[in-house]
Amino acid sequence: MASAVYILDLKGKVLISRTYRGDIPMTAVEKFMPLVLEAEEEQVPVPCFNDEGINYLYIRHNNLYLLAITRKNSNATSIMLFLHKLTEVFTEYFKELEEESIRDNFVIIYELLDEMMDFGYPQTTETKILQEYITQDAHKLEIQVRPPMAVTNAVSWRSEGIKYRKNEVFLDVIESVNLLVNANGNVLRSEILGSVKMRCYLSGMPELRLGLNDKVMFEATGRATPARGKAIEMEDVKFHQCVRLSRFENDRTISFIPPDGEFELMSYRLQTAVKPLIWIEAVVENYTGSRVEYMIKAKAQFKRRSSANNVEIVVPVADDADTPRFRVGYWSSIGSVTYAPERSALVWKIKQFQGGKEFLMRAHFGLPSVKGGALTFLFYFILSDELEKRPPISIKFEIPYFTVSGIQVRYLKIVEKSGYQALPWVRYITQNGDYQMRMPESIKQSKMQPI
What we know:
Elements: E1 4-9, E2 14-19, H1 32-41, E3 48-51, E4 54-61, E5 64-70, H2 76-94, H3 99-104, H4 106-116, E6 117-118, E7 121-122, H5 127-130, H6 138-143, H7 149-152, E8 168-181, E9 187-201, E10 207-212, H8 215-221, E11 235-239, H9 245-251, E12 254-256, E13 261-270, E14 278-287, E15 291-300, E16 307-316, E17 322-329, E18 336-340, E19 345-354, E20 358-366, H10 374-389, E21 393-400, E22 409-415, E23 423-437, E24 444-446
């Protein structure tokens, strides 16, 4: 529980304060900023600390500090989660949470603080429910005397009486691939971060049950693994509050009454060896004189029936490179290449990259800092040193109708007492996360004249 909540600017000046229990002296908040600065000087900043029996818990968002103070030995995770929910709600209301928006909307903020916490205990934190009876227009507050049922109901994330002409559910399984490959072509780090996002347009109070090809579920129930595909073992699974956790722990069934509209149902992680979906080979070749050539080969290492959309390959080049010339192709030309001097990189864009295909791109640059004579002799060593320090190649992409982990939605059942029929739609997407491949440590020398 929290005794008081404060919103401060970066200098520690209080913009908004709300005291819930009355057991915190007014001078407590004045000690906050000196304590934070002291921790930053010692290079050990922490989101919570204790001073003279008072606990300070805070987060920083843009040019603001959101601070909770308590005397009790409270659950720190619960209070930190409340502060993050506070930023989400304020951002939904004001579009941008910063000092100016706080000053312009202090009346609404006090209303929200009163509804979201009572006597130091978090209450309703769902923005959609709060927006039903706390609005931007003051006169609407007088019209709606009673709060919606969701405030006092066990299902606090959904209001009653919702009606749609056409009942539909859209489910997106999105996986992001984090990958780091060293200059020798070895995968140093790989993981998959997944999320299941939903858009529900359903009448009434429907009950949904979602089935995945979950390995633990098959083992727990003694069932055989699915004939098609494979069973996966998800780690770090996190659910929206609507999911019945006790049911999931018992039989791995994902059962829930969904919020209305768009929300993230769950997220997961798989720490597994991932074969690079798009493989990049880079060769840097210097010519006699003051020119350098980059040869980049991109290969799509996924099934031929899939295609990666909006592929963007960013290759770092020398900071002083100029007069760029490009040639793209492999049997036929593909994509477009531009030079981004502000990023010291060339950007190769391929709108659609089919699985199993590979393409080659060449780029020539002039290097005005490298002239003839002794500097030409030293060019190889200078460029080698630069390549070691240069940022890695980064790749962006999106592959629809494909998941790298093999996760599958086995079923999505929708049950509502009125017995209406609803249409579920499922879509799979794999995209890049932190996807990087380091430049080769070795370069080639050539006496050939550049084309």
